[in-house]
Amino acid sequence: MKNINIGIANLLVSTKLREAHFNGNLIGESKKATSDFLDVVRNSPYLQMEFNVFNSIESKLIESEVLAKDYIDEQIDLFEIYTIEEIDAERQKLMQFVSEDTIPNDDRANLYQAIDTLINETLELHENKDIDKMHDALVLVLEHVRSPRQSLLENVDVEPINEDVLEIAVGKFNEKYSGLDESDRDLLKTLIKANWREKKALLETYKTETLAILEGIDEHQDHTAKAIAKIKEMVYAAKNIDDNIIGLHEFKKELL
């Protein structure tokens, strides 16, 4: 399998862990896979460096095109002490956590693959370099680094997961969501997998649908008017986006 890197592997391991928590099964298996993944990374100086580079590029915001390109070049230059063969050998250690049919095709995965392309094409012999491929990858990474965003690392487990914290989180999750109906579970599955753009769009959808119900009420009481005003004021903010969407979902259910 080609183009497996620390970004893709980390994304898949994190996603499997969250889904296991949500579904309430395979939690033990997912925790072991996460622990094994972290052990592999900790025991490989190369994979640790790759993790730091991918995370640094993903989280960085530099609006100046010149400075952003310099920053990306500096990060990619760190790989020059390795050969392509050495990198491939280290990445083989990630294969146990990845399967062909689980590789996503979304903005984050595309960013990781673009960073991967820059690394590989930079290390290729001059006669083997694919300049067009390298240029396209640089444009994508450059656009990401220069783009303002509400939250830099949505749904990414950047730091290694502490087992004690994980145990507490699982308990709270199961306790909080034990009484969900099917529509609640469908919404939470969507939130688990959604990036910030998708969550922003989902918030607007729930706002529109809930306001349509409220504004269709024949006689607006004072609390109805206040609810309408509060919903109209809602804007995307990473720290409370999930709570706002879930709140609107619950409110809409009460209204129907």
Helix-strand makeup class: mainly alpha
Order of helices and strands: HHHHHHHHHHHH
- Domain count: the total is 2
Mean pLDDT: 79
Could you describe the largest sheet, including whether it forms a barrel? Answer: none
What does this 3D model show about the protein?
Helices cover 69% and strands 0% of the residues. By secondary structure, the chain is mainly α. It has 2 domains: 6-146, no CATH class; 179-255, no CATH class. Helix 10 (196-215) runs antiparallel to helix 11. The longest helix has 20 residues, at 196-215. The chain is elongated. 19% of the residues are buried. Residues 150-166 and 168-173 have low confidence and may be disordered.
What's the arrangement of secondary structure elements?
Layout: H1 6-23, H2 27-42, H3 45-59, H4 65-77, H5 84-91, H6 107-123, H7 131-146, H8 163-176, H9 182-193, H10 196-215, H11 222-233, H12 241-255
Helix pairs in contact: 1-2, 1-9, 4-7, 6-7, 9-12, 10-11, 10-12
Short description:
By secondary structure, the protein is an all-alpha fold. The protein has twelve helices and no strands. α9 runs antiparallel to α12 and α10 packs parallel to α12 (241-255).
Annotation keywords:
69% helix, 256 residues, single chain, 2 domains, mainly alpha, 12 helices
